[in-house]
Amino acid sequence: MLVHAPELIQGMIEISYQPKWLETTFSAIKFSQCVIQGLWYTQHSLLQLPHLGESEVKAVSKTAKDGNNVFRNTFFCLPDSEKKGKEGLSKDQQQDVYTASSLLPVLVVETQLFVEEEEIGFDDGKDAAATAAEWWT
Fold it and tell me: In 3D, which of 104, 67, 61 has the Cα closest to residue 83?
């Protein structure tokens, strides 16, 4: 059954999308992520790594400089010798964690939100023109 679960969930997503059931569609997408990752969406992503349990994840999270960037700041970008949460693991288990974490990509996404200054003309009989920034405020 678990082998066919992604296909069944994809069918659920498509069925819920057709009548525009937004909340049902989001729930099906979250459930799909849970099945694929083997975690509930409320659990920490580091639990996907082999041999890491709740106590090891807490040790990693405590050392985070910024709570939202635990991966980038503390775990994946640090050299293996400086990684936290490995104290209760054997050397083989530590190597499994290092190998698995080296396979995962580290992405940095930067976003910008802005409005370009361009002239907008209004055809209401007046010579009115405003910049896009003025028009939106």
Answer: 61
Give the tokens for residue 46.
Answer: 């580091």
Task: Give residue 28's Cα distance to chain centre.
Answer: 17
Which residue, among 107, 111, 37, has the nearest Cα to 72 in the 3D structure?
107
Dump pLDDT digits (tens) for 109-136: 888 887 777 666 555 544 444 444 444 4
Alpha-carbon span 85 to 94, nearest angstrom: 10
pTM: 0.56
Q: Give tens-digit pLDDT for 61-87.
A: 766 555 545 555 567 777 888 777 778
Three-state DSSP state, 49: coil
Neighbours of 46 (CB within 10 A): 22
Element holding 120 (H helix, E strand):
strand 119-122
